[in-house]
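Subgroup meeting minutes
Present: P.N., E.W., G.H.
Scribe: E.W.

1. P.N. recapped why we're keeping a running log of single-chain structure predictions: easier to compare across weeks, and new members can see raw inputs and outputs side by side.
2. G.H. added today's entry (636 aa).
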Amino acid sequence: MRHGFLKTAAATPKIRVADPEENARAVCRCLEECFEKKVKLAVLPELCLTAFTCQDLFLQERLLEGAREALKTVAACTKGHDTLVFVGLPFEKDGKLYNVAAALQDGKILGFVPKRNIPNYAEFYEVRHFAAGGMETEEVDFDGEKVPFGANLLFACTNLPGLVVGCEICEDVWVADPPSTGLAKAGATVIVNLSASNETVGKDDYRRELLKATSARLIAGYVYASAGDGESTQDLVFAGHNMILENGSILAQARLFENETVFSELDLGRLRHERRRMTTFLQEGQGNYVKIPFTLRQEETSLTRTFPSRPFVPADEALKARRCEEILAIQAMGLKKRYEHTGSKSAVIGVSGGLDSTLALLVTARAFDLLGMERSRILSVTMPCFGTTSRTYDNACRLAKALGSTLQEVNIREAVKVHFKEIGQDENCHDVTYENGQARERTQVLMDLANQRGGLVIGTGDMSELALGWATYNGDHMSMYGVNAGVPKTLVRHLVQYSADTCQDPGLREVLLDVLDTPVSPELLPPVDGVISQKTEDLVGPYELHDFFLYYMLRCGFSPAKVYRIAAGAFADSYGEETVRKWLKIFYRRFFGQQFKRSCLPDGPKVGSVALSPRGDLRMPSDASLAVWQKELDEI
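Output recorded in log:
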């Protein structure tokens, strides 16, 4: 359970209709597998100790007695195990029959949670048999023990922060005001649902979207176990559509009609972080809810869930294409509004032949098309100096022409030499002053050209560079509108690739593909034999690692050790653990040390769930100490 991971399971046993004794054995077989895998929360379907499809047999005393005996058998199966188990059965109380979930742990029954919403439409006739559960906790006698009974029960773990489990049953989640809403507002971070949802054409899609929306709206984990093969097929068929979800994402999902048990790990730490972050998620306190305490043994949770190595880039190709189009539209619309407001007549952009300036020029061309302005009013400026190679120079010129912009070359070599002479900088000393002097000269040129033309300087720097502080203060750090400010480096590449794939211009496509094939470099050091000698990722580390660190640290609130753990797994085929550890430490050091550059960023559009604007998502002191994080980094 280290780092807040909770191993969960949703299981569908192969049952027999109206045979509680056999069904108890089937449930226990499922639980034995869960125990072996060290599952801490296991959920089984609605009424699975009898079968959901017993119809009027639910009114038979013998079936109800059999269900009680079956529950004793299952409870005994949990003896010696700390797994919190939810299993469904019919239960009689005060002359009424209820559809309940029994919560079990270590041989004991912790509580009975009755179904609140009893359907009586279409194929469902449950009102004929069952009463609706109420929101008052009572005690019922079961095998000589007093057991809490009520739809307002919450099961709270005493030694795992943030684990509070609420329960609803099947129809409860389909209604306008589901019990899970109140349970979550009362503190539940995980909702379990014991279901018997029959299968009809398209219903699995609807169910899937309903549960994704529910878990997202509640910022909760959701474990859904549904009836399957073994239920009566007199009029209905059940498919065992089990799912484990977390905050809108499906972590595990059963194949239909296979009675498959699914396993995954809920991330309680992330759920708690999301609730802290979302100030509109208002926890209303205990209210009419009763907390039932339970304890889990502290054990290492082996992870079966995966974390995408490129969290900013969708793995699905169709979705990635849609996202790329949407992001380009956001960037272009942001720039369009700036032009409408300022009345500027031109754009000035430094083109280097690299990825970032290529994306910025593509976006600017889009914005000018939206404005109905001639692309010739875009001034693409190439500014060769000591580190410029023929490859990047040629690509910059070809790109500018292919997009219909006006190309201007300003060779800054002599200007930089004069500046070095004035400040006493040795040209042969290739230190930070040597590099940044070129970057600031380029920015001065761009600003002055913009003044000449009544235009705006379009910034090219991306979000990954801002996270690392890999920008020259008052150099490429500065612009009049930074269109790439919300785009991480790993996504920049895909946006350029998407543009190449969709441009329908062979010449433009050719140059875009060559830009994609060029090593990332600021080109501030002289080339060796005409080839780029200064490769950014050799200096600050692989951007795919840094983007991974950024996402899970900032968006998910993960600690350094947790980021390291999942990064080591996500990049196991690419980087050794020592390499991941090295660049993670550098990432944290640079992120904290370079906040002063982010505190005075130019305007630029947010395009995703992570942004670094000091006016938006990241309000961070420029002199914040790294000490708390460093202590954990030192222990990795």
